[in-house]
Amino acid sequence: VYEQNTEDDKSISNNSIVDICEDSDGSIWIGTMDGLNKFSPLENVFYAYKINPFNPYSITANRITDLFLDRENNLWIGTVNGLNKINYRKQVFNYHAGLLLNNTISGIAYLDENTLLLETRDGIVQYNIKNDEVENIWPNILTQQSKANLVKSMFSIDINGNMWIGTDNNGLIRFDHLTGKIVNYNINNSSLPSNKILSTFVDHLGIVWIGTSKGLCSFDSFSEQFSLHSDFNTYRNVELIYETSDNRLWLVFPYAIITLDYYQAKVNILAIYDGAPTFIDNIDKNTTYVMLEDS
After folding, report:
1. Chain centre to alpha carbon of residue 82
2. Considering the chain, what is the average pLDDT of its residues?
3. Binning pLDDT at 50, 70 and 90, where does residue 236 land?
């Protein structure tokens, strides 16, 4: 377990982890509430990147909101003060700001090899990586109620290029960037068990998985149908959904971690937090926000 040690400048800069990704060199990048960190597995040390008001090439904010590694191994960093990209060789940051509706980046997703979709509090921005320019802006996807209740981790792109945005109490939003069509699914017009969306994930076959405060459901993009997976309703709050390279889904609940091989109908209860020691003794049952399968 790696934790912040204020007396060790090679420890992680903050214990609140927002996102994790691995670059092609095997370095692990960790976004926290107080700085971007690079972890070197070979050295077993952390290098922290924080804002420096005297350096125009430093990162623009210490509070990281999202990390995204594109197909050319560029690391894009969403912050509460704009979009950054790190130059690995020079160890400097390029700032992409004035192009945004709102400088607080809530999510970053890949539309294609040239295009990022950026979620902000005031709408969605389509950003061309190659030309460093905005191609489209959709300022009215979210109602004021949805914006107020937006949850950062609810930003997923399905196989048809639809954007899925979950909210804290206003259901699930599907946005088609090609047509501009917006559909808001909720308990009144779909089989969603709750309007409080906690997690979303698109698996390798294009199934959209939705974690809610009242269980797990999925959406088949071909049949346009929701399915409720009532076997997991015992645990209710599905706080995180992640797929590993063996096509297993990992489901994180407040008191359990479960792996699910949906297509083989296999379920494995990996850990249940009931006060007894488990092999994951040091994981706080209420704060598992992100997972990464490294190389």
Report:
1. 17
2. 81
3. confident
